[in-house]
Amino acid sequence: MSDIIAADQLRLFIERIERLEEEKKAIADDIKDVYAEAKSNGYDVKTMRAIVRLRKMEKHHRDEAEALLDTYKAALGLA
């Protein structure tokens, strides 16, 4: 009896994951479309992606990353 219950539970988990994977793909396609639209309006997509990545970070992590980038740039004569 417990084997049947475990199999049913496993099947439900797998089906949920499959549905979420489908939703994730649909959302990824939507994001891709937004970037394409922005590009067609003259925006630089690479820079937009960098901004989105920065906005996800907490301020102290962002400040730390920017300081480190500045340090590396200075060391390489890019500053």
Q: How would you describe this protein?
A:
It is built from three helices and no strands. The protein is mainly α and 79 residues long. The mean pLDDT is 95.
Summary?
By secondary structure, this protein is mainly alpha-helical.
**Main sheet characteristics:** none
Distance between the termini: 69 Å
Strand content: under 5%
Report the count of strand segments.
Answer: 0
Number of DSSP helical runs: 3
Give me some keywords for this one.
79 residues; 3 helices; mainly alpha
Layout of SSEs?
Elements: H1 2-40, H2 45-56, H3 59-75
